[in-house]
Amino acid sequence: MTAISMKDLRKSYGSLEVIHGIDIEVQSGEFIALVGPSGCGKSTLLRMISGLEPISAGQMSFDDQRVNDLSPAQRQIAMVFQSYALYPHMSVRKNLSFGLENLRMEKAEINRRVDAAAKMLAIDGYLDRKPKALSGGQRQRVAIGRAIVRQPRVFLFDEPLSNLDAKLRVQTRSEITKLHKQLKTTMIYVTHDQVEAMTMAQKIVVLNKGKVEQIGRPLDLFERPANLFVAGFIGSPRMNIYPGKVVSSGGDGVTLDSPHLGRFTVPGMDADVQAGSDVAIGLRPSHLKLRPTTPGTGGGTMVVEQVESMGHETFVYGRTSQSDELTIVHVPGHFEAETGTTLAFTFDPAFAHLFSAADGRSLKGARI
Amino acid sequence: MTAISMKDLRKSYGSLEVIHGIDIEVQSGEFIALVGPSGCGKSTLLRMISGLEPISAGQMSFDDQRVNDLSPAQRQIAMVFQSYALYPHMSVRKNLSFGLENLRMEKAEINRRVDAAAKMLAIDGYLDRKPKALSGGQRQRVAIGRAIVRQPRVFLFDEPLSNLDAKLRVQTRSEITKLHKQLKTTMIYVTHDQVEAMTMAQKIVVLNKGKVEQIGRPLDLFERPANLFVAGFIGSPRMNIYPGKVVSSGGDGVTLDSPHLGRFTVPGMDADVQAGSDVAIGLRPSHLKLRPTTPGTGGGTMVVEQVESMGHETFVYGRTSQSDELTIVHVPGHFEAETGTTLAFTFDPAFAHLFSAADGRSLKGARI
Amino acid sequence: ETITFAFSDDDPNYIATMEKLVDQFEAENKDITVNFVTAGYAQMMEQLPLQLSVGKGPDVAKITATDLLRYTADLRPYMKDPDGFAKLHGKSLELIRTPGTAPDKIGGYVASQTLNQPFVNVTLFEQAGVPLPAKGATLTEIVDASVKVAKATGVEIPFTMDRSGHRFAGPAFSYGAHFLKDGQLIFPDDAAKRYIADLYKWSQSGAFPKEMWGAAGGTRYKNMGDEFANGNVVTYLAGNWMVNPFIAKIGDAFDWTAIDPPCGDAGCVPMPGSTFVVAFQHTKAPEAAARLIEYLGSEKVQREIAEQFLILTGAQIDNPHYKTDSANAKSSMEAFARNVANVPEEARTIERTQGASAVYGSIVQRMSQLIVGELTLEEAYAQLAADAKGANVELAKYAAAAK
Amino acid sequence: MIAFLTRTRHPGRFDLSDWLAWGWAILGTLVVAIPIAWAVISSLKTEAEINSFPPALVPRAAQTITVEGQAKPLSVWIRTAPDGSEQTVALVRRVGLSATVLDPTKPEETFRVPVAELRQLKEFHLQFSNYTEPMKQFNFLRYLWNTVFVTVVATILTLLLNSMAAFALSKYRFAGRNAMFALILSTMMIPLSVIMVPAFMVIVGLNLADNLWGVILSTVSTPTGVFLLRQYMLTIPDDLIEAARVDAASEFRIYRRIVLPLCAPALAVLAIFSVIWRWNDFLWPLIVLSSPENYTLQIGLSALQGQFNVQWHYILAMTVVTLLPVTVVFLFLQKYITEGVASSGVK
Amino acid sequence: MRVVEMPMAALQRLLGAARMPYVFILPNMVLFTIFVFVPVGLAIAYAFTGGTNLLIWDRPFVGLENFKALLDCGSYLTPSTCRYNLFWTAVHNTWWYTLLNTLGTLFFALVTALVLNRLTRGRGFFRAVFFYPVLLSPVVVGLIWQWFLAREGLLNSFLMEWFDTRIIFLLEVAWSRIWVVYVSIWFHMGFFMLIILAGLQAIPRDIYEAAEIDGTSQWRQFWCLTLPLLMPNLLVVTVLLLIRSVQVFDEAWVLTNGGGPGTANTFIVQFIYQTAFSPDLRLYGLASAASVLMGIALLLLTLSQLWLAKKAQV
Ligand SMILES: Nc1ncnc2c1ncn2[C@@H]1O[C@H](COP(=O)(O)OP(=O)(O)OP(=O)(O)O)[C@@H](O)[C@H]1O
Ligand SMILES: Nc1ncnc2c1ncn2[C@@H]1O[C@H](COP(=O)(O)OP(=O)(O)OP(=O)(O)O)[C@@H](O)[C@H]1O
Ligand SMILES: [Mg+2]
Ligand SMILES: [Mg+2]
């Protein structure tokens, strides 16, 4: 139950700055996800929070106490590594109790905590095994258990699920969420998988190239991405982006023209746009309709390249004229189409996102 | 363009039999996926087809010619390994040409084929690089290229995508599908990911513990799984299964009673059922409705445990009374619910699957 | 015909001369090719025995180990003038004959006879004002004088000898010790024990520094010539083969000479040793080997070698004119020459006895242990006796196996 | 103290433990380097200098001067006369405690002085003849060629045969595999000096005595080599070999084109070791080879070490000569060697 | 390579792929058999024969006599009560040497590896420096150090300079033993250091980070993480060290002029060598018997090592 405040944090390796001034406020008990593409500095930031990586500049405080120069142990954080970093030569029990023994805790208390954590994570059957004799999911849980027993002020996770297979990932995801609900400890969770971030975190921090792109609730990011980067990063499959031009801008909306989507009017802008300026139009695959129930005012045609049917949903990949990028349409249920046929699609302009073509800044979000 | 026929294939390691008599007929030019849980024998079967693993019993024929005792080279198969197994010390060009050189092919012909394959896979820019200098996706394509240049009778793939990250996986998936459309060579594709199998293959073979559970078109498996195993394995998220009892069995349907779902009548049975017998009722998450548009005749209530919203779709996990297993409901778009609240759900009984509780055999499939 | 001639010596000039002689021989005998091989001493010691035991190796070789003599061929039938050869080499041929061979066998010739006598650093004696030990001095007197010189001049090593059983043996004979009795090795007898006790006493007092024999192990040979040449030693018990090297090494650094062997109850014994040039049984060209041996053993060649390299040959060379301008060397050679006649038969016999090397080895080994304090005097006597007994037992087995 | 040293800490901080670590490394470097450097320096000293005590750091030699009327150059000395005055003189001859000297400026006049009044003048001098002399005394080029031949051929064969055996032992399952491997490993326990005599009998039996091939063949199959390569090959994924099999490569082609190139680091390590072993081999070639046209360098050098004289100046020089190639090879390949030993030594 | 490839491919067609491993291992095995197994067999055979003849067929069979003679001892702890007291002296010396050398090398190699692992700069250089002596020949090492330790050697000139005294190191029993051990550590340490260093670098960094987060002191990190995780490497090092220590010969022999002073540094292999090669009385049977005994002891030592390690792991 610790609030964390980062002010203008920077990190340089030699003359190379990789974190360029980051400000984040984490409320006490919050579950925060750090997302971003590979190499954007997620791990580095997390390690700065943990105390494993010295802070080059800026201030890090836990509950208003400056911790820049405290060791990980003094900060009372616990960390779950991507590789788990279990001690391979110790039994599960020893792995869990090792940190507590370092603190000269009483035997009885150690055992109590270890047993409680093991029970909670359903690893009490394996306490005498070595990590080698555990499956990936079990190892994952031991790693979490090692963090839990220490009753830390903050939990840090560095891509803890990326070594698991899809099925186990889904399962462990919900276990961590449950854990947070139970313990209510502040948690910071690094991932490059936006599905994880969307489904688990209360707040998401999108990092890119050592800078914060946007901080917000998952649905906020989905509905109103602050810029093209976030729009492209959040949402799976990714948002379709089309170039367009502002024809006119009036009281009840903006009229746009796009070679791919034709001319349509979008209501309720967040920012002012000038007629004649270039914009990027974003449409999520699920907002494009191939079998229109309610006809939208915008629309276009595409040549089908591929159809992926999963039984209960289908993704249709197609190419609009003059476009290099594929358009993806999400169709609920089963849908069949031959490669090469031309399909028309429509959309409700209210769902369109608009971005400035110049700097990628969001001009308008969308209700879902 | 080779048809493959397997007759009562068996494989033993010492006294341990891991493949227990498998019969599969692969049509010439077909794209077959072998799926099944880990350790079920997929790789073993594939290696038996390739000739890398000797066949303990049974018969394997390519185009009616017995190949049991032929080497991989003699069978003229090509294989793409999960690890790619690129020769790390050879350039991409050399990797592609190695197999052809082994056959003492003319230099000119080798170059022609390599260039053609490289062009097709868009790796012609990297021909002089070593595999180390390639990204995961590029390596993947080199591995496929190495298979293509040999113009084999059969392509074998052993989980070729499992080393790629999610994004790349989607992309490569469609590339392999395209490849099959172009070359029309017989392909056998091992995966434990049913999404891959569903979206790529013309026919899926579901293996379990060294035995074939079902063979069929992807949608057939989805609509009419032959048994509980296939029902649970195909479809993501997995089918919800509830216990039930047959109350009466008449001309227009079977009336069932389930502690979780109440009483409802299911039309159109595939098999006869006796009143009073125990059945398992299967319902796909996308067939359960929380915000009913058309009220179904069946339905139940559940206590919400977790809600995972992805923006354009939401999964609600809940627990019906007396049930150990979670019920999963798929809701299109965004949906919010507090943990602990009770929600009612309904379904259309036409979509219910029925299985014999005794042996898991399917009693009734479902249209989607 | 081709034969191989393996030759080894410490003096490179000697080797070069030998090679020239072989070339001359080849020129005179066009039908014979001689493969002249130079080899290191270690090689001769370790390799030749192995090779000979399986019937391999050179046809002709210069050897130092007497136990290889049993592999020698009898060249008499192949020689042009065996009797003349025998006459020239006289009694020295006896040294090559092993027990049980023909009494007139000619296996080769004795390339050099060595005598063990002390060298003294004359300059040091002069500086200390101590007279050189006179003829007839006992070992004790020589050592005492050396100690006095060392004290006066600050030199560290009054007296030393090479770490070798052979070197040890000369004074042992003069003390009256015997190595053999009724064909059995007996060592040490009472005289030997007195000698050992003296050496031990000197090693403890520093007259014969411990380092000389102690700072080495096993039966390893260790030469002290460098110490003498560097002026660190007053008196050094070695032999005539050192004269030639000393001329070069010492130069004009100090004056030196050899003196007469130390005397004792049983006389003044210069321990004899020999090197041999012999032909081996396995040779496929005994005639060529015989011709080579005859040539090298001829009076002319032997005289040349003797005079050039200050060697006491087995062949009787009258009035050799040693070719050196070093007065030190000349006086040393005189000291050796006048003692040739003093060699007792017993000393020659032991050299040829199977098992003598084993006893020598045991002496070196046990003396070292005694000197560094691993054994007491009594224990050392006991160990030496046990070693000799053991050698007798093994030799008996060998004799039995030979029959 | 050890606890300081458990691991690399954050770069950039320099604390007590870093000082200790650097201290240890530098001290260790001195301990390793000094004896070797001393031997190298000493090898360039004159015989007299080598034996002088206390030893001088720099190689020096007596200063000499050519004086008219004297056949040989004379050594230069400083004479301290009883009155304390100093004078440079050249030594003509020395007998006992007195020496005949002359003043180089007046070469006709010689006079006698006590040796105690003389102090020799020395100058910096590298005695290269320590190297050239022994080389003149034997057929250096011939021995060098033989050594190179033995070293190169034996190394190539070692690499070839050991890698083939290692390939079989690591990448196939066949009857007797484990037994063969255990048998090969167990011979690591036998010191070769112990089986030299029977081994020589075998050489003689095969008629390979006094033949370079006798030296080469008997040293080719090394348990260390097989072990090292096998451990390394175990890390090559089987997939690669199967991929090649699918690619219709014959088993030998798989070995030659896939396994061998991939083993390069381990092969490099073995190559280095093999070169060192063969280059330094002494006792075994000494027994096998007997004619001089077959001698290797080490045997040739040993001939220098006579029965009676320890000629330190030659021995040190020749020691340096034998060190050189090994050092050069090491300098060029040290990364390979140290990393290769590390990666293949234990797995 | 074509030249070899063609016949090998033909061979594969003839024999089938399954028999190819035998083809690959054959050449090596043939040479191994001829030059190692046969001589070892012969050496064992020699152990049961007597006399001084070198040719085995000229030697009488004596059964276990050689072994009996070697083992003929009043008390194995007091070599002087044994018939072959030199052998037992050698056994004792070897035992002490093995103990000191194994522990010493292990210690120095471990500390050096830890130090090098810690260095962020210059690691490659120091690694090369410490490894360099491994490349030297034993004879060279013995000579260099003999030269260094001689009465008038460099070390003594320092002693003279600073303490006005000198020690004849190779004459004093204690000193000479220390130097023999020291020189072999100097000689071989680099090799073992590399193996340990490789082990250290194979330990994942994140384990230490996890330990740091767990608040583990450096001392505890060493004892609870580094040391246990290094065990496999340490085991290999120890076994190799034991094997090599028991077989000590060359460099010690050269350094101490044949095992001196007295018998202070006479080791088993030297005894064997000396017995087999002494001029005049080559007791080859006895030497072989001693080698067989040594081989057995080594085997037992190694096996017990492996067994202990296995037990510790469970
Ligand atoms: N020790 C270092 N020295 C120099 N640069 C480094 C170092 N560690 C990381 N970097 C650089 O810092 C940047 C951020 O790295 P970081 O590991 O934090 O990325 P990440 O977001 O965790 O990526 P991923 O998703 O791949 O784990 C990268 O560009 C990386 O190359
Ligand atoms: N060489 C072998 N010896 C004994 N058993 C083996 C061997 N190879 C495989 N098996 C067993 O055969 C079974 C099938 O293995 P296989 O590799 O075919 O599984 P899989 O379906 O490919 O699994 P995965 O999805 O994990 O790759 C497993 O139970 C495995 O343990
Ligand atoms: Mg990261
Ligand atoms: Mg598999």
TrEMBL record, chains A, B:
| Keywords attached to this entry | ATP-binding, Cell inner membrane, Cell membrane, Membrane, Nucleotide-binding, Transport
InterPro entries found in the cross-reference section: AAA+_ATPase (IPR003593), ABC_transporter-like_ATP-bd (IPR003439), ABC_transporter-like_CS (IPR017871), ABC_transpr_MalK-like (IPR015855), ABC_transpr_MalK/UgpC-like (IPR047641), Mo/tungstate-bd_C_term_dom (IPR008995), NA-bd_OB-fold (IPR012340), P-loop_NTPase (IPR027417)
Tell me what this protein is called: ABC transporter
Which locations, inside or outside the cell, does it occupy?
Answer: Cell inner membrane
Give the main location.
Answer: membrane
What is the organism lineage in this UniProt record? Bacteria, Pseudomonadati, Pseudomonadota, Alphaproteobacteria, Hyphomicrobiales
- Similarity comment: family membership: Belongs to the ABC transporter superfamily.
- Tree of life domain: Bacteria
- Name all ABC transporter domain ranges: 4-234
Its record classes its membrane topology as: Peripheral membrane protein
From the UniProt record, which GO molecular function terms apply? ABC-type maltose transporter activity; ATP binding; ATP hydrolysis activity
Automatic annotation (TrEMBL), chain D:
Question: Which positions fall inside the ABC transmembrane type-1 domain?
Answer: 144-333
Cellular location of this protein? Cell membrane
Alphabetized, the UniProt keywords read: Cell membrane, Membrane, Transmembrane, Transmembrane helix, Transport
Q: Membrane topology type, per the record? A: Multi-pass membrane protein
Single GO cellular component annotation?
plasma membrane
* CDD domains to which the protein is assigned, alphabetical: TM_PBP2 (cd06261)
* Record flagged with keyword Cell membrane: yes
Q: Which residues form a coiled coil?
A: none
Task: Identify the Pfam families for this entry.
Answer: BPD_transp_1
GO terms for biological process, alphabetical: transmembrane transport
Q: Which family does it belong to?
A: Belongs to the binding-protein-dependent transport system permease family.
Name of the protein described by the UniProt record: ABC transporter permease
From TrEMBL, chain E:
Gene3D superfamilies per the record? Answer: MetI-like
Q: Name one GO biological process term.
A: transmembrane transport
Q: Where is the ABC transmembrane type-1 domain?
A: 91-305
Can you name the source organism?
Pararhizobium polonicum
Q: What is its main location?
A: membrane
Per UniProt, the keywords (alphabetical) are:
Cell membrane, Membrane, Transmembrane, Transmembrane helix, Transport
Indicate what this protein is called per its UniProt record: Sugar ABC transporter permease
Q: Does the keyword Membrane apply?
A: yes
- Indicate the transmembrane segments per the record: 21-48, 95-116, 128-148, 179-201, 222-243, 283-308
**PROSITE patterns this protein is in?**
ABC_TM1 (PS50928)
Where is this protein found? Cell membrane
Q: A Pfam family name for this chain?
A: BPD_transp_1
Which PANTHER family does its entry note?
ABC TRANSPORTER PERMEASE PROTEIN, INNER MEMBRANE ABC TRANSPORTER PERMEASE PROTEIN YCJO
Its membrane topology: Multi-pass membrane protein
A GO CC term assigned to this protein in UniProt: plasma membrane
Which residues fall in a coiled-coil region?
A: none
Q: Identify the InterPro entries for this entry.
A: ABC_transporter_permease, MetI-like, MetI-like_sf
Keyword Kinase present in the record's keywords: the answer is no
- Homology family: Belongs to the binding-protein-dependent transport system permease family.
